[in-house]
UniProtKB/TrEMBL annotation:
CDD domains per record: YXKO-related
Protein name, UniProt field: Bifunctional NAD(P)H-hydrate repair enzyme
Segments forming domain YjeF C-terminal: 213-477
UniProt binding sites for (6S)-NADPHX: 65-69, 125-131, 154, 246, 305, 356, 423
Cofactor: Mg(2+); K(+)
InterPro entries: CARKD, Nnr, Ribokinase-like, YjeF_N_dom, YjeF_N_dom_sf
UniProt keyword Isomerase present: yes
One Gene Ontology MF term: ATP binding
Domain YjeF N-terminal per the UniProt entry, residue ranges: 19-212
Stored PANTHER family: ATP-DEPENDENT (S)-NAD(P)H-HYDRATE DEHYDRATASE, ATP-DEPENDENT (S)-NAD(P)H-HYDRATE DEHYDRATASE FAMILY MEMBER
Keywords from the named record: ATP-binding, Isomerase, Lyase, Metal-binding, Multifunctional enzyme, NAD, NADP, Nucleotide-binding, Potassium
Binding sites annotated in the UniProt record for K(+): 66, 121, 157
Length: 478
């Protein structure tokens, strides 16, 4: 058979509907479902083969095409002389699954008899459309408990593809999750993504799907131009409030994130600022609006350590009014109201909002949004309403643009769950915004650098240690 080379899109993240469209496109171009299932199943079998290393494998098959993949995996292992047995939880119901089942010539056993070392879960994949209950749930639990290692094909059976929600009581934990064709949102969303140790992608020939989201990868950061000077490299103005620590953390990561100059606009006298940070009292010799009127400012950051009183509101007003590209974080997000943005759409430049879950809920309330739906849908909705790029933080951080672009962070170290790491991310975002002028690019670069800084800091760090590692993360992206 002659194979056309095809462009692989290993970083795309497709919803169940987008995945169906991508498969349809392949079929329109002449590849039938059977061939796709063979590619998926045989590709997945390679991983199963490596993990099992000769130990007995049990494949649990459901009625749909996920079950069909299971028959292909089982037959591939059998052909290679591996001990394999198959449990058909329900008979195959699709044409492709029936055909795959007819080509399997190994043993089929009752769930009660099935014993082995590795369980391959092909009960349900992206076609799961309701809670897994009763006999099927019990079967998955019992077989999972009876096998030392577990591998999920496409997704664990009990995960909603587009939201990452669990549709089963007590979803088992897996050693490996093998995504087929493309990553799905559930591979990068909580709580689903906490249920496996590693995930791998098997390519089945899908091209880049229009409108698909992507996984954030290592950015390519250029060294400053040969004729660079500190202002052209990006001047970040940090609007500080009464809690100086947060502003200092953000300033530090802004300084190490590539900008040429960071100016901290302090509300109160500041002690303990590092020698390489320029601190200006505003109001002091200048009011804050005067300090922010400097044309050389390339990005303003407001929020870390700002507070929520009337002074905080005035300072945020000044930041919103100054017209420079702006990053709003922390307290500024709880102060921001619909009117703040709606009145100014023609006056403000790029805007980035960096909410964690609580701030996201507060923003949705202020913008009159329902807060219902999947995390990516909520972030896209907020981005559109606020006319801002939104970094929706958490263990499953994602970035949404007002134009509908979506990018997911790959899993990042859970050591980030310590106070002050959000300030470091905000500083990095402002820094990348000052350098690139592009809010979506700045947000995705900052998210990657933040996680890379965490990886390079190791275990059990403080936010100040993380901020110092931004330098190593930058070096890794040069
Ligand atoms: N299409 C392709 O080209 C390729 C697809 N590929 C593979 O196909 C997978 C998607 O296949 P799929 O769409 O057939 O769905 P799948 O996940 O097997 O389940 C659907 C079945 O389950 C049933 N059902 C659902 N929920 C249930 C519940 N809670 N409790 C009980 N029953 C429930 C549902 O029944 P119904 O809703 O009709 O009652 C239906 O019968 C995908 O993940 C990938 O592995 C690859 O081979 C590459 C090529
Ligand atoms: N379990 C986790 N795994 C990975 N990243 C996490 C986890 N918990 C939090 N983070 C990241 O740590 C940062 C915390 O920010 P935030 O909630 O604003 O905290 P703070 O206000 O204390 O700085 C965010 O970038 C978030 O994505
Ligand atoms: K599965």
């Amino acid at each position: 058979m002659h194979h056309q080379p095809h462009p692989i899109a290993p970083d795309q993240v497709l919803t169940a509907a987008q995945m169906r469209d991508a498969e349809q496109r392949l079929m329109d171009a002449g590849t039938d479902v059977h061939t796709l299932m063979q590619r998926a199943g045989r590709g997945a079998a390679e991983w199963v083969w490596r993990i099992a290393s000769g130990a007995p494998v049990t494949v649990l098959c459901g009625p749909g095409n996920n079950g069909g993949d299971g028959y292909v995996i089982a037959e591939t292992l059998r052909e290679r002389g591996f001990p394999v047995q198959l449990v058909a939880a329900l008979p195959p119901a699709t044409d492709a699954a029936k055909r795959a089942a007819s080509l399997y010539s190994g043993p089929v056993v009752d769930a009660a008899e099935a014993k082995g070392t590795v369980l391959v879960d092909c009960l349900f994949g992206s076609g799961l459309n309701r809670e897994v209950t009763g006999v099927l749930r019990d079967m998955l639990h019992e077989l999972s408990a009876r096998h030392h290692r577990r591998i999920a094909i496409d997704l664990p059976s009990g995960v909603a593809t587009d939201s990452g929600e669990l549709l089963i009581d007590e979803l088992p934990h897996y050693d490996l999750c093998i995504a087929l064709g493309a990553w799905k949102p559930a591979h990068v969303l909580m709580p689903a993504m906490a249920h496996w140790r590693q995930a791998r992608l098997v390519d089945i020939g899908c091209d880049t799907e229009p409108g698909g989201a992507r996984l954030i990868g290592r950015p390519s950061i250029a060294a400053p131009a040969a004729d660079a000077h500190k202002y052209r490299r990006g001047l970040v103005a940090m609007v500080a409030g009464p809690m100086a620590g947060a502003a200092l953390l953000a300033s530090r990561s802004a300084a190490l994130g590539g900008s040429g100059y960071v100016k901290l606009l302090a509300q109160e006298p500041l002690s303990g600022a590092p020698a390489d940070l320029v601190v200006l009292r505003a109001p002091g010799a200048m009011t804050l609006p005067q300090a922010l009127s400097d044309d050389r400012i390339a990005a303003v950051l407001c929020g870390p350590g700002l507070g929520r009183d009337h002074q905080a509101r005035e300072r945020m007003e000044a930041a919103l009014n100054c017209g420079h590209p702006l990053v709003l974080d922390a307290d500024a997000l709880t102060l921001l109201q619909l009117a703040d943005r709606a009145d100014r759409t023609d006056r403000t430049g790029p805007l980035v909002l960096t909410p964690h879950e609580g701030e996201m809920a507060a923003l949705e309330k202020s913008f009159g949004l329902s807060g219902k739906g999947t995390k990516p849908c909520r972030a896209l909705c907020l981005a559109q309403s606020a006319g801002a790029v939104v970094i929706a933080k958490g263990a499953d951080t994602l970035v949404a643009s007002p134009g509908g672009a979506l990018a997911y962070a790959p899993p990042s170290p859970s050591w980030l769950s310590v106070a002050g790491t959000g300030d470091v991310l905000a500083g990095l975002t402002a820094s990348r915004l000052a350098v690139t002028g592009d809010p979506f690019r700045a947000a995705t670069e900052a998210v990657w650098l933040h996680a890379e800084a965490a990886r390079r800091t190791g275990a059990d760090f403080t936010a100040a240690m993380l901020a110092e590692s931004v330098r190593d993360a930058m070096c890794a992206a040069l």
